[in-house]
C-alpha cells in the first residue's frame, strides 16, 4: 500500500497575545494581505505565497493540555525559539516601512558575507523578524 510521504509545507503558526492586532500589524508593517480573521478572533491568516502565516493566541485551552504552555520571553535578552523571515527585493524600504508601522528596530539592513542584505526587527509581541534579500549566487 503506497502512502503519500511527500507533504507540502502548509502553515507556520505564530502564537501572539492578540490575534486581531497581530494580523493588522503584519499586514501594515510587512505588506501582507489578510486572508482570514475568524469571528472568534482566535485565528488569523495572511496571504503569503505557498505557506500560510497563521496567528493564534499564546494562551489557549484547546492545545495547552495536549502540547504544553507557550513560553513567552520575559525581556529583550530572551527570544522565541522561532524567527520569522521575509524576503524582499528592497530590504531598506521594507525595514523602514516596518519600523514606521510599529516594529522595533533591532539591526538595520546590512550586506552579509554570504551575499544577502539582512535587517532585524521585533514585532509587537517581541518576536524577531528577519528581513532579507534573495541570496545572490556566487
Automatic annotation (TrEMBL):
Domain VOC: 8-134
InterPro entries (alphabetical): Glyas_Bleomycin-R_OHBP_Dase, Glyas_Fos-R_dOase_dom, GlyoxalaseI/FosfomycinResist, VOC_core
SUPFAM superfamilies to which the protein is assigned, alphabetical: Glyoxalase/Bleomycin resistance protein/Dihydroxybiphenyl dioxygenase
Top-level taxon of origin: Eukaryota
A Pfam family annotated for this UniProt entry: Glyoxalase
CDD domains linked: VOC_like
Transmembrane region(s): none
Name under which the protein is recorded: VOC domain-containing protein
